[in-house]
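I am writing to request your help with a piece of structural work I have in hand. I am sending you one protein, given as its amino acid sequence and as whole-number tokens for its backbone shapes. Kindly check, if you would, that the fold set down in the tokens agrees with what the sequence suggests. You will find the record immediately after this paragraph:
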Amino acid sequence: MYTYFLTPLFLSGLVAGSPLVLRQTGPGTPTTGNNSTGTPSTSTGGIDMAAAIKAIMPSSNTCSGAQVPDDCRTADQAAPFIVKSYADFSPGELAGVLALMGLESVDFKFKHNVSPGRPGQGTANMMMPNFVSQYAASIFGEQAVAGQSPDAILSMVTVDEHNFGSAGWFLKTFCEPGIQDSLKTGTDAGFQAYMGCVGVDGNDSTRLEYWNRAKAAFNL
């Protein structure tokens, strides 16, 4: 299993104000899908998703001052897409994927790698290009992906409709059923198993901070 997430070098690069390499274009305001009532759904299982995201990702209440404004989404903007993408996920699974996305995207401030600027790496959980290609193929078909550059493929799945669902896709596609079941319990052991599948250190203090906030947000 390849580690596909941002390393501490990425986070240190942000602090140091590293230069933007792969700026994406597009509007800063996402479009949202509507439910049967004609309004976007922002809650699931009695949980206000926007409020949960804000609790897990403290800076997700605003995009003011974002280094890459086109990448940034607030909790309120992201919530409808997350509710739709994770409709069949348990609270434990939701807590796990949101904790992961929060750290990797720096509270939804980034959806592509800006330091060191690796072409094709991105989505809300910062997958490596090989996984991005597989994710895109799972949505659009292999023919749509064949022959495309890494950045072109990434642009296919960083639209709001697909950007936030990538972490769940990875969990269901690459993590063994036992790991998925363990994460459903909402326990620390389940989170550690999930991080092992991802290929990152589950004992990293910053990851644990996100996880602990996620547990609290979902009453785990």
